[in-house]
UniProtKB/TrEMBL annotation:
Lineage, opening ranks: Eukaryota, Metazoa, Chordata, Craniata, Vertebrata
The species this protein was found in: Neovison vison (American mink)
Cellular component annotations (GO), alphabetically ordered: cytoplasm
The protein's name in its UniProt record: tRNA wybutosine-synthesizing protein 2 homolog
Keyword S-adenosyl-L-methionine belongs to the record: yes
Gene that this sequence comes from: TRMT12
Catalytic reaction equation(s): 4-demethylwyosine(37) in tRNA(Phe) + S-adenosyl-L-methionine = 4-demethyl-7-[(3S)-3-amino-3-carboxypropyl]wyosine(37) in tRNA(Phe) + S-methyl-5'-thioadenosine + H(+)
GO molecular function: tRNA 4-demethylwyosine alpha-amino-alpha-carboxypropyltransferase activity; tRNA methyltransferase activity
PANTHER family: TRNA METHYLTRANSFERASE (PTHR23245), TRNA WYBUTOSINE-SYNTHESIZING PROTEIN 2 HOMOLOG (PTHR23245:SF25)
Amino acid sequence: MEREGGKPAAVVAVVTEPRFTQRYREYLEKQKLLDRRHRVEKMPDGTVALPVLGETLPEQHLHELRDRVAPGSTCTVTQLLDPVPSKKAQGCSPAQRLCLEVSRWVEGRGVMWSAELEADLPRSWQRHGDLLLLSEDCFQAKQWKHLEPELWETVASALGVRRVAKRGRVSPDGARTPAVTLLLGDHGWVEHVDNGIRYKFDVTRCMFSFGNITEKLRVASLPCAGEVLVDLYAGIGYFTLPFLVHAGAAFVHACEWNPHAVAALRKNLDINGVADRCKIHFGDNRKLKLSNIADRVNLGLIPSSEEGWPIACQVLRHDAGGILHIHQNVESYPGKNHQPPGSSEMEKEHWPYPQQMITSHCTNGATRDSRGKRQSAATKPEWQRWAESAETRLATLLQQVHGTPWKTQILHIQPVKSYAPHVDHIVLDLECRPCPLVG
């Protein structure tokens, strides 16, 4: 496995003279301590280093090697900073290597290896530097409990990391706190680099989605020079940072109510050199005091950012309006009759004839058909229907907030990722402009 930067992770090795190498190897194999993933290496002074599993070799084994296995041998422990993979390891996938090492270790503890245990091993994981983040659907069998905490040392050694964590379901606490348990290691802080941007965060306290990379790359390419942006759900800076670092936004107001995410955001703004162009608003964004300030608003919350729509309308510039980037999970079940937000009888009563109200006030050439220009030919019908209902709803909100009619236009519908079967995470780019005053 590799550590951040593309270099192999350092491994522990026991060093002795060449004539004792075979005796050492036999002993380490018998004790299930020999690391077969890496080659035995010859050191500059002529001694030989045999890679071993784990973060160190316990003193009892060092005594055994010196006193009984090879009396008179020089027996020391070192770290190989650039270990060379063995031929066997080069042809073995990480999942296969994990299965090989864990099964060998389990049997060495007197537990019979079974198909059930093998099926309970992870096939994929997230890696953040020297921390391995396992999914919730692995290591669930009762037998594993009796093998902790040494089990996690074996997993870490097999995959070349120092720390191991396992995630559960996201807590429904409004802050999207991940239910992550640290299994090996003393802290959960990690660093991840996307598109030249450094993100530091605590995996046990903050969410990080690799699936959002396409949207982060997209917003990084938007022409935001000179613009003021409000990020209503900033988190650790997933989109705040691309807008500042690459898109050239003049200033970002970043809203976040998770204190752990705010701590990471402050750190990330600093390490990326953009702290002077961002103000963090800590707390519930529905109570945000800002208004009449934004050229662009990012609403990066799923499954829906609808609670933030009124405040998004409030912060847009009164004179020129701006663009909303609205994230949403949209269902697209085959044969399902999609009913978009705002279509219930209660909502129809609350929002009377919204599209008619928009077009009737946008005179002097400002009117347009409700199916105006679209740049979303490749979208699913469900995405388009949701986008049109959101557009209608927001046009009404804009008129309520500003007291004058506004016109809206769908600029783009961007798929981000598949969130679940038949559920897609998309982003709607909606242009919102105040209607020109009549003569």
